[in-house]
Design a protein that fits this description.
Elements (H helix, E strand, L loop, with lengths): L3 H5 L8 H29 L5 H30 L1 H21 L1 H29 L8 H29 L2 H22 L16 H17 L1 H9 L1 H24 L3 H24 L5 H9 L3 E2 L2 E2 L2 H29 L6 H21 L12 H16 L2 H11 L5 H29 L5 H28 L1 H8 L4
Antiparallel strand pairs: 1-2
Helix pairs in contact: 2-3, 2-5, 2-6, 2-7, 2-12, 2-13, 3-4, 3-5, 3-9, 3-10, 3-17, 4-5, 4-7, 5-9, 5-17, 6-7, 6-13, 6-16, 9-10, 10-17, 11-14, 11-16, 11-17, 11-18, 11-19, 12-13, 12-18, 13-15, 14-15, 14-18, 17-18
Length: 490
């Protein structure tokens, strides 16, 4: 068994435990991105939902998934510890996908409910364990999160492409079974290597007698299972989702304020800076997360099946191009930051966020331009669509790899789980907003042709490009203020 000091006193660029967490997260993201990429397609083509309804349900499902990461993060901080939370979440996710695989049309919402609970307990905790591999002032932390982010995207690439392909061309049962199998592989990997993590992720209630600790843990598990019928009802009826999200938003911000007021003044300032990053991450996701909603439906009907002269399904591209480009360009962007740092030209974290928004804006303006490359059938260029994902990927690389890292840097250790949960809760609200935005695109389509859909959707993408441009400029103008709040954190 390793001690925390031995783990954090590693030599070289990465601690060896990072590779375990990298692999486990890779398989979990295969499961998640595979599911995400097929949701709207499956609901429209197989469940018979209209596109606006499918967008709203997509937003609701994704919102619940990320909202429960906030709740899961709190239970991990206070009762379960990261390890037990991760295992419980992974088991529930596996069961959910197996349920859907057994009968996709009959049990879709039952399985999705399990995935919501499971991801909530799994997702924030593995990210927090990465942070604990490093001492607070270790400059190698960003590199560690960069590698971890690569693991996320290898899983996203494999799952995003394979699950869409299996579902559309072979069997929806195979699609969901593949997601279940790789999640089980991730759990096996974790069980085989968890001893190397030493005390990282252990229950925070170690000082309590075993019987009391077990009682509290069991109550958490029972509470999670008892919440399933309520989640099932709210996912099926998106009107209830609105009330839930408003409530959890108020509770989350209130809880954050209470916990922040307990801290010393320097940490209070850092947590305010962290909240600014979290809020802008919400704005980013409101725009970016059209990928699984409106862009998935747009790719299904409004793109040709040719990429550089080769036959290619546009939904496979939409669901995996971003991950592919991240894997290719993430190391290059990292080297670029290092080169700029040596010349004392590297942008600070808040400016990187701003630059990310500018790339996002450029990407959505390019999505808008697809209308000028369409034929009379309303189908446009898959080549330009793919290039647009490259542009957006550069924007994500200015936020994603450093986002989780900066939150752990700005947060006191005892708030890691809660703050990572708040980071993912921002994504939940982004997904929630993205679903409503995508639904508005569908409602704006008053015709019943591919061309009318092309015009309605690309009009919406132009509007999102304008919003992203404004957000990027505002962030860059706020740079000095946020840097003062961050104090010594870079």
């Amino acid at each position: 068994m390793y001690t925390l000091e031995e783990i954090q006193d590693f030599k070289g660029k990465y601690p060896k435990q990072l590779w375990t967490l990298f692999t486990v997260e890779m398989w979990e993201r295969f499961c998640f991105y595979g599911m995400r990429g097929v949701l709207t397609i499956f609901m429209v083509d197989q469940l018979g939902l209209l596109e606006d309804k499918a967008n709203l349900q997509y937003g609701a499902i994704q919102a619940f998934i990320y909202a429960f990461t906030f709740i899961g993060g709190i239970f991990a901080d206070k009762i379960l510890g990261f390890k037990r939370s991760l295992v419980f979440g992974g088991l529930i996710m596996s069961i959910g996908n197996l349920i859907i695989a057994f009968s996709p049309h009959d049990f879709f919402y039952f399985g999705i409910t399990c995935s919501i609970i499971g991801t909530g307990f799994f997702k924030p905790n593995i990210s927090s364990m990465v942070g604990e591999l490093y001492k607070e002032d270790d400059p190698r932390r960003d590199a560690g999160y960069g590698l971890f982010y690569a693991g996320i995207n290898i899983g996203g690439l494999l799952g995003g492409g394979l699950c869409v392909y299996l579902g559309k061309y072979y069997s929806w049962s195979w699609c969901f079974l593949a997601a279940a199998v790789v999640m089980i592989l991730g759990l096996i990997t974790f069980f085989a290597t968890k001893k190397t993590l030493g005390p990282i992720g252990d229950s925070p209630l170690q000082a309590l007698p075993q019987s009391k600790r077990t009682t509290r843990e069991v109550l958490v598990y029972i509470g999670a299972l008892l919440s399933m019928p309520l989640i099932f009802i709210m996912v099926k009826n998106t009107d209830y989702t609105d009330y839930f999200m408003y409530l959890i938003g108020i509770v989350a911000v209130g809880y954050f304020i209470i916990e922040t007021l307990k801290q010393t003044t320097p940490y209070q300032k850092k947590l305010v800076a962290a909240f600014i990053f979290i809020f802008m991450y919400f704005v980013f996701n409101s725009i970016y997360e059209q990928s699984g909603g409106s862009l998935s439906l747009f790719a299904k009907d409004n793109l040709v099946h040719k990429l550089l002269g080769f036959g290619m399904d546009p939904n496979v591209i939409n669901n995996s191009a971003n991950s592919f480009f991240i894997i290719i360009f993430s190391p290059l962007i990292g080297l670029a930051w290092i080169g700029l740092n040596k010349r004392k030209l590297e942008p600070n974290t808040i400016n990187k966020f701003g630059i990310g928004f500018l790339f996002l804006a450029a990407g959505f303006f390019l999505f808008y331009s697809l209308r000028y490359f369409a034929g009379a059938d309303g189908k446009s260029s898959l080549n330009l669509f793919t290039f647009t994902w490259l542009v957006i990927t550069f924007g994500e690389l200015c936020l994603g790899p450093i986002g989780m890292s900066i939150i752990t840097k700005l947060s006191p250790k005892k708030m890691f789980g809660m703050m990572m949960g708040l980071w993912f809760l921002a994504s939940a609200f982004g997904q929630f907003a993205a679903g409503k935005i995508g639904a508005s695109f569908s409602e704006a389509n008053t015709g019943n042709t591919n061309m009318s859909k092309l015009i309605a959707y690309t009009d919406g993408y132009k509007t999102l490009g304008i919003y992203a441009l404004i957000a990027g400029v505002v962030l860059i103008l706020m740079s000095k203020l946020v840097r003062k709040l961050m104090q010594d954190v870079k």
